[in-house]
Amino acid sequence: MKIKTILLIVLLTIVLYSFTTYLGMFLSEKYDTQLEGLNPTKEQINFAEKLKNKIERDKKIALSVIIISLVLIYPICKIKK
C-alpha cells in the first residue's frame, strides 16, 4: 500500500474514534451530571460539577483532535507520486 493511503486511513480512523468519543462524552455529561429532583447533597453537587468540568475539558480535546486530523487530511491528499 502507498504511504498516502495508509496515512489517510489512520487519520480517518482517528477522526471516527474521536467523534464517537465526543458523542459518548456528550451523552455521559447529560446523564451523569443530572441531579434535578433527586435532592442532592453538597457532596453530590460538587462531584457532579467536577465531573462536568472534566467532561467539558475532554470534549474540547476530542474536538481539537478531530479538527487537527481533518486539517491534516488536505495536505496528505495533495501529495504527488
Give a description of the structure.
By secondary structure, the chain is mainly alpha-helical. It has one domain (3-75). The chain has helices at 3-32, 42-77. The longest helix is centred in the last third of the chain and has 36 residues, at 42-77. The model has no long low-confidence stretch (mean pLDDT 86).
Offer a concise description of the structure.
The chain has 81 residues and is mainly alpha-helical. Helices cover 81% and strands 0% of the residues.
Chart the SSEs and their pairings.
Blueprint: H1 3-32, H2 42-77
Helix pairs in contact: 1-2
Which structural traits does this protein have?
81 residues, mainly alpha, 2 helices, 81% helix
- What is the end-to-end distance? 13 Å
What proportion of the residues form beta strands (DSSP E)? under 5%
- Low-pLDDT stretches are none
Helix content: over 70%
Query: How many individual β-strands?
Result: 0
Q: Return Rg in Å.
A: 19 Å
